[in-house]
Amino acid sequence: MCHTHPRPHPTEGIQVTRQNLHSRKQASIAILATTATVWTLSMTAAAAAPAAGFVEYPDPLHAPCEGIYHASSGRIYIEEIVDPGPNGNVGSLGVLDPATGAIDRYPLPVPGTTAGGAAFGPDGNLWFTYFGTSSGVAFLDPDTKEYRTFPTSDPTATPTDIWPGPDNAMYFPESIAQKLGRIDLATHQISEIPIPGGGLNVPTTIIMPGAGKKMMFSAALANRIVEYDTATGEFTQHDVPTPGAVPQGLTLGPDGAIWFSETLGAKIGRIDPVSGEITEYPIATPEVPIPSMGPLVLGSDGNLWSANGGFTGGSTIGRFNTTTHRIDYFDLPRPVSGPCDIDSAAAAAGKLVIGQTTGGAVAIAEIDDLNAIK
Questions:
Q1: Cβ pair 317, 305 in contact under 8 A
Q2: What is the largest CA-CA distance in the chain?
Q3: Phi–psi pair at 316, nearest 5 degrees
Q4: Among 41, 139, 264, 366, whose CB has the most other CB atoms within 10 angstroms?
Q5: Which residues contact 272 (CB under 8 A, 6 or more apart)?
Q6: The predicted structure's pLDDT at residue 89
Q7: pLDDT at 302
Q8: SS3 state at 1
């Protein structure tokens, strides 16, 4: 069962002025290349105990990382890190029918690769990045279930996420190549923009739309959040005050500010949209002393929701109130479930769709149902 007793309020935030420093150090980013390998250790999922508010759909041995809700059909498209089938034991996309629990599976079209992130584009296709033996972006047509692939200029570029931009294009960060990629949805031409800073300044995980015509992404190893203005081509870099915080998932909050999680810093950060000031809010509680917070999404209720423990086998979902700065946690049904991501488009519509990578299942909850619990 979920915890029902109230959590204490975090301490007041600490304000620090933004610094735009460029790291010049060279460091290994082997963690990015090995993440998929680590996730292949996903075993047959442990039996799930009932948990109020959540409905589960088992997907054992495929390490489901992200579930993307397809509103028009009601189906869930699943980014599966592992596909122990005929396509070289690499990733696949699954299509879950919540009415029956059945999953149709489509191995990725490029052998030896796994998906790095996925989102529906304005063209109606499910776009995703892939990396491994080669790198690129691709889409799955939800009607025909056919793939089209578009390789990057560098086969080792390692694009890790993708999201629609404000200019009829999909944007994706290239972690190894240290570039920001863009594919035009009309021409399918790829352009790649070098990210200034060098060294540890690599785009790592999540890319999301920012204010106006901006896109924003995390550079976790450099401990900063980066904005890219698609209208001007300018980059703005925000250094996180807490050393080694590993900022990950980020989103625009209801106040127009950038909010982001600090996986090792055990905090949620806020970047003021005008001054660039960063305020940090501790999110550890006695019940969840090591949150290992991952991606943040803005829910239909105006709260920030997070998947916690993706790299440490945690099993909670967080709810953070941006006004009171209160954090509450909800237990997922499976122990050591490793929730990887929450679909931001579904959250905006009132539904949490969560991939449990090491738990081997997809969990779904209505935001209103969780808010009724506590």
A1: yes
A2: 54
A3: -130, 160
A4: 139
A5: 257, 278, 279
A6: 54
A7: 98
A8: coil
Residues 6+ apart with CB under 8 A from 100: none
Residue 12, pLDDT score: 37
CB neighbour list of residue 241: distance below 8 Å, 6 or more residues apart: 14, 16, 278, 280
Of the chain, the end-to-end C-alpha distance in Å amounts to: 12
For residue 192, how far is the Cα from the chain centroid? 21
* Per-residue confidence (pLDDT) for residue 83, from 0 to 100: 82
- Angle (CA) 309 331 270, round 5°: 55
Query: Which pairs count as long-range contacts for 120-128, CB under 8 Å and 24+ apart, including other chains?
Result: 120/68, 120/70, 120/345, 121/164, 121/170, 121/185, 122/164, 122/168, 122/185, 123/185, 126/68, 126/70, 126/77, 126/93, 127/162, 127/170, 128/79, 128/93, 128/162
* CA neighbor of 184 nearest in space, from 156, 164, 200: 164
Q: Tell me, what amino acid is at 190?
A: I
State the Cα–Cα distance between residues 364 and 369, nearest whole angstrom.
Answer: 11
Predicted local distance difference test score (pLDDT) of residue 320: 98
> Distance between CA atoms of 81 and 307, rounded to whole angstroms?
17
What residues of the chain score a pLDDT lower than 50?
1-45
H or E element: which one contains 373? helix 367-373
Q: Domains of the chain by range and CATH?
A: 14-373 (2.130.10.10)
Q: Tell which residue, 189, 219, 236, has the closest CA to residue 19.
A: 236
Taking the C-alpha atoms of residue 306 and residue 291, their distance in angstroms, rounded to an integer, is: 10
Confidence (pLDDT) at 88: 61
Q: How far is CA 147 from CA 137, 138, 178, in A?
A: 11, 7, 26
pLDDT of residue 30: 35
Rg (CA), the chain: 19
- Cα–Cα distance between 238 and 117 in angstroms, integer? 23
53: exposed, middle or buried (C-beta count within 10 Å: 0-12, 13-18, 19+)?
buried
